[in-house]
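Thought: the user wants the 3D structure for the chain below. I'll pass the sequence to the structure tool as-is, report back what it returns, then summarize two notable features.
Action: structure_tool
Action Input:
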Amino acid sequence: MKKIAVIAHDRFKPMLCSFLAERKDWLWGKSLVATGRTAEALEKASPGLDILHVNKGESGGYQEITRMIKSGEISFVIFFRDPSIKQAYHEDIQALLDACDNHNVPIATNALAAELIIIGLIKKETARR
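Observation:
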């Protein structure tokens, strides 16, 4: 499996940390890529995760992950985002969402969607064995 991009807006960072901690057995051996503060929060909550840091979202991190999606490096995106936030770099967020659509990369913007994608990936991994 390629990298899994994980991103969360500030108020959803604790939820993302809990979500991933509850699935640490499945995440074992998988590479994660995360924007600046999300990566820091994850490392604090779950030491030992393999996390590639990119810049903070507002400092180009969304653009970096978008490029990784376009180049085929990302297989799945978890982005617990706050849709009520409209920031100056909202275009970067929209570009990331569009890249997922255009490159057929599944993206989950909430915990239930992420859970369903993970279940699907587990079934796919099991079928390949």
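Final Answer: Structure generated. The CA atoms of residues 9 and 85 lie 9 Å apart. The beta strands are 3-8, 32-34, 51-53, 74-80, 107-108.
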